[in-house]
Amino acid sequence: MLSFISNRLSQPQRSSRWLLWLLLAACTTPAFAQTPALPERRAGLEKAPLQTTQLSIAAPGDTARVFSLQNLADLVFANHPIVKQAALLSDEARSQVLQARGGFDPKLGADFYRKQFGGTDYYNNWGNELKIPLWPGGIDLKASYDRYVGTYVNPESRTSGQGLAGIGLSVPIGAGLLIDARRSTLRQARVLQGAAEAERVKQINEVWLQAAKDYWNWYYTFRQAALIEEGVALADRRFQGTVRRAQIGDQAPIDSVEAQITVQDRQVQAEQLRVDLQNARLILSNHLWTPAGQPAELPAYAIPQVPSLDSVSRAELARLADFAAAQHPTLRKLEAKISQLGIEERYRREMLKPKLNVSGVLLSQGNFYQSEVPAAYNFGRDNYKVGVDFAFPLFLRAERGKLQYTRIQLKEVALERQQSQRTIVTQVNTVFNTLRAYERQLALQAQTIANQRLLLQAELQKFELGESTIFLINARETKLIDLRIKQESLRASYEKSRAELYYYAGMQSLAAAR
Average pLDDT, stretch 308-331? Predict the structure, then answer.
């Protein structure tokens, strides 16, 4: 009989029938969850309001507890270890320049050898030389004093008992005349000072970008937790009001269960957000250090600042784009690399020339303590020593290979700079477009929130007239909370994008902190 009736029923009727059977089965099945206690009716009670606050716009907090973005910037730029480490890059570059200058340091050398055996003075050799490199022409200025005496001293090196003094020059006529290894090293070290400064700025900008993002993540989590806490308080007041109405017989007792479920659901969200807020505070604390280099922690009572949401104008965009195209740290590093390779290329071209060094020394008798020295033994054109040193690789394969490799590197860096410049300008314009989109979204979100407040107020008025339910009021209120959380998310995303805009332009977004 039941199968016959089931076959004659339409699909909607069969669905309704099965739903009814399931409800009956649920009523007869023992419940594992705790059965909610419905309020009992009591006389002499007055009706309680369902809501006293319509989730109004948050008022400014205690300014003494506000930890602003500028406060974060002051601590990061003063005490952050990575910022201090970046400052060492300039010191390191200066040390490289000092090391390169060492190639032009005067050098004093001396040697002494003596042999005496069997009563014979074989040799008594004492040689001294002062060598002073000069910048122009790769010239070396030399001053010497030699005293070589003894029975078995080489005749070409033998001097008188007073010794022999000399002063002269060593000049490279071929390779090394225009630029040599010493001048090339010093010039490259000076150029790399600019690269080190650009790298320092880049590292500091990266630290500040991450710190700013963590700050606005903390702000968003803080506002989200505050809104949910406010929602918990509102839902609890509604629950208390519903219980009071049910006790005086003005509302169905089952409505209190609906109101209590909303309270419990928001309490679960609030518990999770407390953990998220604590974690966001700890992540932001990673950027906080004391002047003594000890880690600092953001106090639990600290609150973030309200974002200013200042619009970035087209004129500011043009200024940032021009700065990025000319002064971006990445481009400055590549330009320094190009200059360095240019110096290296010039040096490698110089090495293609034959090596031809000419040296000349004027000689004099070494007894300078005497008032007069005979003209025949004094400095003059008749007392001299000259020399010529020549060398030239026949195939120049090593020199040509080094020059070719340097030119290839130079082309690679020039192409990299060309692409990097376009990428940087594109990133600046892309983030600016994102900011414009966030501004439009924030304007629409503000209108949506205002309309949702009107809907919630109307729903409360309808409820007072008996034309609405607790479920609809909770749904309207939950939607309003979600919209306000979305608004805070857009505000935080806007501020993070603005920090990215200045970062991609090669600057620090300190304007956003002031």
Answer: 91
